[in-house]
Specification:
disordered N terminus; alpha+beta; 12 strands; 24% helix; 7 helices
């Protein structure tokens, strides 16, 4: 999925000379994406009906699941990814097709991300910047103080792979691709209390809801980790952080 490598690429950008004109001090508390969610009502869950995907061929099941998941107005993705011996814990909320906000924790460091259309905001804590500095061959002693809890802002083009995190279509495509080819129906299961059909591929398993909309509920790619999808159509509001807490990297070039 390239998440870890993309984060480190963004870190190196800052560590190699991008310095805010005001010294990077924030005036006020940290900004977080505003998100709200509600649980489905018991009555909605109780009246869920079978959607009949078990009667379809594997390729048809996957196509319906992909379409239903993309059609949801919003959703939440949580799980773990592992790449090059590193583990990342992911918690993202998608608002529409190209708006997302969430957190990634890796090697004890914490990163917040907000993607709004073609703009990406990125903020790491002290532990993250020290780790990133070490990987870039630098001491990193002054980086947390320099940034002062600021958000880094750039275009999707500037942040490269990191920007794809906020594009739900690309994110879902990359996630499903990890399950591999030769998809076959393996059996049934329950994910988050919901009945699901298990599809097995050469690289992992995909779990598709068999009641209500045939959403993708989980993608399990074994040693590479897993992602759970939930919160379909629950209210989510992704907002940009306050301007006085943002460093625009495009203005520092």
């Amino acid at each position: 999925m390239g998440v870890v490598s993309a984060l480190l690429t963004g870190a190196v950008l800052v560590l190699t000379g991008c310095e805010p004109a005001d010294g990077g001090r924030a005036s006020g508390g940290e900004a977080e994406a505003s998100t709200t969610s509600v649980s489905p009502s018991p009555s909605a869950t109780a009246t869920a009906t079978a959607n009949g995907v078990e009667r379809l061929r594997p390729a048809q099941i996957l196509a319906r699941a992909r379409a239903a998941t993309l059609a949801a107005r919003s959703l939440r993705v949580r799980g773990q990814i592992r790449e090059d011996g590193e583990r990342g814990d992911v918690d993202l909320r998608f608002d529409g097709r190209t708006r997302a906000a969430g957190e990634i924790t890796m090697d004890g460091g914490h990163v917040s991300i907000i993607c709004i259309d073609s703009v990406v905001y990125f903020k790491g804590d002290d532990a993250f910047w020290k780790t990133a500095a070490g990987k870039a061959g630098k001491t990193g002693k002054g980086t947390p103080q320099l940034l002062g809890g600021m958000w880094l802002k750039d275009t999707a083009e500037g942040f490269g792979e990191l920007a794809e995190t906020g594009d739900r279509k690309k994110f879902l495509a990359e996630t499903l691709k990890e399950a591999g080819t030769s998809i076959k129906v393996e059996g049934t299961s329950r994910i988050g209390g919901r009945a699901a059909l298990t599809l097995r591929g050469s690289g992992g398993r995909i779990y598709v809801a068999t009641e209500g909309e045939p959403y993708v509920l989980r993608v399990d790619i074994g040693a590479k980790g897993y992602l759970d999808l939930s919160g379909f159509d629950e209210p989510v509001a992704v907002k940009a952080p306050p301007e006085d807490q943002v460093v625009d990297l495009s203005e520092l070039e």
